[in-house]
Amino acid sequence: MSQASEGPSDPPAQLRRDVLDFARSVRDAVDEDSLVLPTLPDTALRVNAVVSDPDGAIDDLVRAISGDPAIAIRVVQAANSAYTSGATHIDSVQMAVTRLGMQYTRTLVTRLTLAQLFRARSARLLRFAHGVWQESLRVAALSQVLARERTELHPEVAMLGGLLHLVGALPVIGMADRRQELDGHHEHIIDVIRILQPEIGHYLLSAWGFSASFCACAWVYKDPWRQHEGATEASDVVIVARKLLSLDFLRALSADAELPAFERLRLPYLATLEDLPEFHRAFAVALDGLMQ
């Protein structure tokens, strides 16, 4: 008796083997500490180091930014934008950082540099990378609003958590983009990227020097049930933001298993963003600010 033929939407056997081999090769690279990681520009690394240091000062931050003329210009422009501007025109990095604050400046510099890393040679992977980045921006904007309205957490810390929570896709996209046998079949790799991105994201953020609370944001997509002691963290806010925006998680959520993060933010678990009109305008303003 002949074997049943594969359905028209099923990938051929060789492609399935290539996809499985690719997934194993990514995990092996992580285990062997040989995964090629994207490099966050030195300016962003220095800025994060200054802001993360309890003794870091505005003057240190200004020096870190002033060494990169392109970033310095963008920081001054941001300080004069409609989203952040005051009555006084800003014409120096020192004045810009003073107006924006250290946390917002770190988020801004990270956003400007991180956006350049979401790229790929393959058109299909490039569209996926751009989609991941747009999703990150939306979560970041709502995270800022939620943190300001419902927590004691600094809003820009929550926003940065949203920007960073999907960066684990980057090394896997890069690795897939270099595998010639997968050319033209990257639609079958995207599920692999989504499955691996939490683990890879934690690995990458740690390598970039981000604190444990930011590294925890990478696990949000895989483990929205995460519980921890102490104050509300950026990961809690990111979990709620994804749920309110009706974005998916690695596993489907149960309607009767409330996520701990919702209790921390004092929000009804079954709510969507449409149910919370008080957040709508603030979210739109925050998102517009991120897009500038």
Mean of all residue-level pLDDT scores: 89
Which value, in Å, is the CA radius of gyration?
Answer: 20 Å
Q: Describe the sheet with the most strands.
A: none
**CATH fold description of the domain at 14-31 and 107-291:** Hypothetical protein af1432
> Which residue ranges are poorly predicted, with pLDDT under 50 across at least 5 consecutive positions?
1-8
Q: Structural class from helices and strands?
A: mainly alpha
Total count of strands? 0
Q: State the end-to-end CA separation.
A: 63 Å
Beta-strand proportion = under 5%
CATH top level label of the domain at 14-31 and 107-291: Mainly Alpha
Helix content: 55-70%
CATH architecture of the domain at 14-31 and 107-291: Orthogonal Bundle
Helix segment tally? 14
Q: What name goes with the CATH superfamily of the domain at 14-31 and 107-291?
A: Hypothetical protein af1432
Q: Strand-and-helix sequence, N→C? A: HHHHHHHHHHHHHH
Q: Per the principal axes of the C-alpha atoms, what is the gross shape?
A: globular
